Amino acid sequence: MMPLPCVVLFNQLLTGIVKLKHYSSVVTLFKDFCILGTLVDDYSLNIVIKCYCMSRVDLGFCILSGFFKQGVVPDVSTFSTLLKGQFRENYPNHSNIIINSSSCRSVVTRLYWYYILVV
Predict the structure, then answer these.
(1) What is the 3 state secondary structure string of 55-92?
(2) According to the model, what pLDDT value does residue 99 have?
(3) Which of 16, 32, 59, 118 is the most exposed place for a label (fewest CB within 10 A)?
């Protein structure tokens, strides 16, 4: 049996498919690789969150729980992707939950989020 690809190659493959805007293919491929036991990192989880936020933000939050299960700390790009998805689906009131729950983060992070809210 051939060894599984490293997470860097897996992320490059997912990024290439995202650039082609085949978001459902990325999600399916991600699920298949997880079943095979390929390790995922925060970058690959961010890619899948972005794909889910193009159609259903609630599924993006399900992937966010995967961050916590693996002990990975979500970063600015994770929260900004979720915020953009909420505004895309016209749920701006729910964005206050994300901003208030992470108010202990740095000022730079909050300024970046407020920039997203304005844009």
Answers:
(1) CCHHHHHHHHHHHHHHCCCCCHHHHHHHHHHHHHCCCH
(2) 59
(3) 118
